[in-house]
Specification:
207 residues; Trna Endonuclease, Chain: A, domain 1; 42% helix; 3-stranded antiparallel β-sheet; 2 domains
Length: 207
């Protein structure tokens, strides 16, 4: 853009010189001045765009943490999942894997975007994210979990355990990104999966 603007400056100088000698070059001068103004404006817009792009990175997301503050009066009890409930869900999922001839490994503490890495006898791996609810309710996938689900596709599984406090039911959904309708919560970067999606599209394995 700078080159084109400088080139037009040179051409305009030449035209102004010709005008001084009596040539009728007003139309040419006007056209080149208008073109120069367009180039200057485009250059300014391009510079702004470049500055914005300098602040962008294309690295993998790095999970730092999540804080959710809600009034006790507005807390959704269906979305509450305490440590004890989570452990029940993990045990059900691990037992299911062993029962079906796979060797599960609990990696939930490593923040990998899934809770269990499970291998079968052919060394094929299932990447399993376990979501547990004390009763029946929606589940939420974090951005990291959603990205891993997109990456591993059919090797990624959502194991949803509901009614874990009383009579657990396990629903299994393979490749949740492709097979479930979700509601994206931008403000907290979560992907909400309604229970009816899990119930209608998941394979119920225990009751």
């Amino acid at each position: 853009m700078e080159y084109l603007i400088l080139k037009l400056d040179g051409e305009l100088i030449s035209l102004y010189n010709r005008k001084e000698f009596g040539e009728n070059v007003d139309l040419a001068i006007r056209n080149k001045e208008e073109r120069k103004e367009k180039y200057i404006k485009a250059s300014e817009e391009l510079e702004v765009q470049i500055q914005k792009e300098k602040t962008l990175t294309m690295s993998a997301p790095h999970f730092i943490g999540i804080i959710r503050v809600k009034s006790p009066a507005h807390t959704d009890k269906k979305m509450v999942s305490n440590k004890e409930i989570e452990l029940i869900g993990m045990k059900i999922a691990m037992d299911y894997e062993v029962k079906n001839g796979r060797k599960p490994e609990d990696v939930s503490s490593e923040n990998l975007g899934f809770d269990i890495r499970s291998k079968d006898k052919d060394h094929k791996i299932r990447y399993i994210e376990v979501k547990t609810r004390a009763q029946v309710g929606d589940v939420a996938l974090t951005q990291n979990e959603w990205f891993k689900a997109k990456r591993f596709e059919d090797d990624y599984y959502l194991y949803a355990v509901v009614n874990s406090a009383l009579k657990p039911k396990l629903y299994i959904i393979r490749n949740p990104v492709e097979n479930l309708e979700v509601e994206q919560k931008v403000e907290s970067v979560r992907y909400i999966i309604a229970f009816n999606e899990i119930e209608t599209k998941g394979d119920k394995e225990i009751e």
